[in-house]
Amino acid sequence: MQTTLLTKENILLQQDSTSWQEAIKKAAQPLLKNGSVTKQYVEAMVQSVLDAGPYIVLMPGFALAHARSEDGVCRLGLSAMTLNTPISFGSPNDPVKVIFCLAAIDPTSHLELMGELAEVLARDNIIDRLANVQTPEAFIKLLEETRS
């Protein structure tokens, strides 16, 4: 996994959210804080689910929040968040316990990252294992070990 993108500062663990909208906004906070995205982009991620449904819930327990680059991406970025209590997006793959937020600057710059992420997510029980780590460092280590 491109650890230059997913740093310990971009990982939030055991968070509480009362709605999927709040969960997306909270998961995006590290990207907002480090200047990868604007507030408009965070709102666009929520709006895209309102408009198109819970397509971001890619597999049981996992959502990949994103929007169009022109909605406020300043640079390529990735954040991750685990939830204390899994949340419903209205998807057959609910409830979600791990959310990644992707900020892609163009249609291709993130493709290598997406390939790596797909490889990791294909592993058995990875979502449960990620949801239960106790430190951001352990989260990154698990992603790297799973990819090896």
From TrEMBL:
It comes from the Bacteria. InterPro entries: Ascorbate-PTS_EIIA_comp (IPR051351), PTrfase/Anion_transptr (IPR016152), PTS_EIIA_type-2_dom (IPR002178). Keywords: Cytoplasm, Kinase, Phosphoprotein, Phosphotransferase system, Sugar transport, Transferase, Transport. The phosphoenolpyruvate-dependent sugar phosphotransferase system (sugar PTS), a major carbohydrate active transport system, catalyzes the phosphorylation of incoming sugar substrates concomitantly with their translocation across the cell membrane. The enzyme II UlaABC PTS system is involved in ascorbate transport. GO terms for biological process: phosphoenolpyruvate-dependent sugar phosphotransferase system. This is Ascorbate-specific PTS system EIIA component. Gene3D superfamilies: Mannitol-specific EII, Chain A. Coiled coil: none annotated. One of its GO terms (cellular component) is cytoplasm. PROSITE patterns: PTS_EIIA_TYPE_2 (PS51094). GO terms for molecular function: kinase activity. It is found in: Cytoplasm. CDD domains: PTS_IIA_fru (cd00211). It comes from Enterococcus casseliflavus (Enterococcus flavescens). Pfam families: PTS_EIIA_2 (PF00359).
